[in-house]
Amino acid sequence: MFWKCNMVATSNVDTLLDDEDVTLHKLMEEEDLLQECKGLNNKLIVFLVQPEVLHELVDLIITEPPEGEVETMRYKYANLACELLTCDVSKMNEVLSSSIDVLDKLCTFIRQQSPLNPLLASFFSKTLGILVLRKSETMLKYISGRENMIDEVLQHLDKSANMDLVLRFATCAEPHNIRCLYKEWLNEQKLVPKLVSLIEPKSSEQMQCYASQAVCDMVISLRDQKTHSDKDSTDTFPLLSVLESESTASQLLDQMFSGSITELTLVHGISVFLAIFDTSKPNSADVEQEAALQEKFESTVADITGAVEALIPRLHNLHNVLEEPPALMPMITTIGTLDPPFGSARLQVAKLVSAIIEINEPRIDAELARLGTLDVLLDLFFKYEWNNFLHTHVEHSIRSVFAAPPLEGDTVLGHPLIQHLFSGCRLKQRILESFEKCDSGCRRPGYMGHVIKIANDIASFLEAESSEELVKSFETGTLADSVQKWQEFVAGPLTDINKKQAPDIITGPMLHTSLDGDFSNADFPHETAFQQAFERHRLQQMTDNFLARFAFRNENLSIPDEAMSAPLDGRLNKIKLVRSDAVDMQGDAALFEKISSQKSRSFGDGSDDDDDDDDDDDGWEFKDGSGNVFLSAAAETERSVDKLPLEQEPEGSGSSSEEEENSGPRKIVSASPVAKGDLIGPAATNDQGWANFDLAPASSFGTVSDDPNLWDTAQNPAPDVFTSDAWDIDSEPAPWKFEAGDEDSTEGWADFSGFSSTIPCANLTSTETTSDETSASSTTDAAPAAVVDSSSSSENSAG
Q: What pLDDT is stored for residue 465 in this prediction?
């Protein structure tokens, strides 16, 4: 393994630390310094917690680096110093939080005049924040003992890093009791009023943005902590109470609408109210969860009563913003020029109106109805036909009006905004006009999807008989004439649209995929060409046509052409054998018994352990009553390939390239007719009489004639029949040897032009030559072999 080879690279940090003159800058040049620190290298940590080293690290993160250096390397040491101080090593946190002089030097950074370097501000905030998180109690004692600590941080709130630090003070201290102490200290420092005071037109854009973001995040985080606290807990949330108080809301509204009204102040001020009024009404299918959410909703509504009280007198200011927004430059868009554009201020007002309607406060609803705020929003809805954000908030406001639950001592029909929508806003007439405009051939406006939803909300509301009667009482004069049109619209176009937009509900038995079951018995159409071809493929027989299509081609086979040209009778398993005239078949019963015993001997022991021994058995060899030896086709091929050592190996035998280079046509000569045991010597047979070629001497197998002219048909005409006399090794001594340079000579090579391809079969003939894929392959791979005369040898080999 890697670690066993001792290949782990050793760090140079330990080597540098052994030097007494080592400096912080020398260590910072090492690339693995930070990894060693996080890996709790004790020697390194002891060096870093030294007072002079801590002072040097703090200096690096609060001091502006010189400008002469390359910009990419300018903050290298400052960034590395910050990472070392905030790598969350327990010993370093403990020493740093207890070193008052080091903390004093760190806090001098926020005493500088604005603007601060944003990167150095992030180093400062990160270092102080990790100490507040890990050493909360120690740091509380330090920061609470410093005068104007909060004022110094808020002075530079135009940097997002300082906003993160304020949120850490308010929400991230641990444990719970220490976090409560932080909240009490921050409340004593009047953090909330100081943050709200920054959201005013005189503050910079970044200051207002980060102050608003800090207040919103504090509301969300503190409200979440209150929700998850125990009911029996005595914990107080002073910061949250101040944020939701009437005084805070009044202060913010005064800063928004006193003096000159700017869009920036309106946007960030309304963002704070949206966070306060975010009640998140329950909408859950779980009864228990819905009950819990309803309880949370009611508790939140009760807590924001003060903010609601402060907002009601200022609703007219919000209404005026919708009618007379802050001046904006014309905006060129792909659909034309917007002059004036809708603007962020009016969008925030529309969002706030939607939020306060959801609270279902009667005084707010009555004031909005008196002012006609929804009527103005509907005018803007149809004017800015491509402002999808505006359309969403207006639709949500109307749905909240229809879905408002009845209050105590009142009914839903007494909702003040109901009459305002149907009489003052002419809501039904506006919807009918918008559909008529689409039917006239004009381009479909972008608000039509929201109009369809509003129409469905109205139709659902009017399904109740009491609601319909109430609406009829509102609609007098010209409005009464549209009642019939509305009913026709709901029964006609609106119903058709709902049918088109309704999702298809799949009914009936469950559909299955192809993986769910077996479709082998499925009734596929048989008239298709593919199905007919498949049926023909299934029913085809092993016929001549099959062999011609799928077997080897004749030219690729090394057997005589006559063998392949013999016709088949339609079945490969119909093979008729006739006995040779030269064979005396007397004693058929005895011959059958001998054949059966030989086959039983070959297949009787089929265990895997005897595979090596079985390779030498001739289970397909048998004799007749006269002593003639017979071999099956498989045995003939096996003998010709495996048991004649001088024969050329068949193709695909896996011979090496060197053997292939030295291989070539050679004349195979037979040994003298000897018995089976004499061929390989008595010592090369086992106790059962079977051959063991591993023990046979090389001289027992004869030799190969090396005469280069031996294959020349002019000097040595090919015999008509292979006989032992024609190929007797004793009558033809080896006449040649290879000399240098003979490899490239083209003389003396074999000429097969006069070679006869007729090889008579011995003792066994067939009236029909048959073959399947296996026998064809075996015949192809077999090479010509010598034939030993049965009268002089007990073992035959056939090619």
A: 61
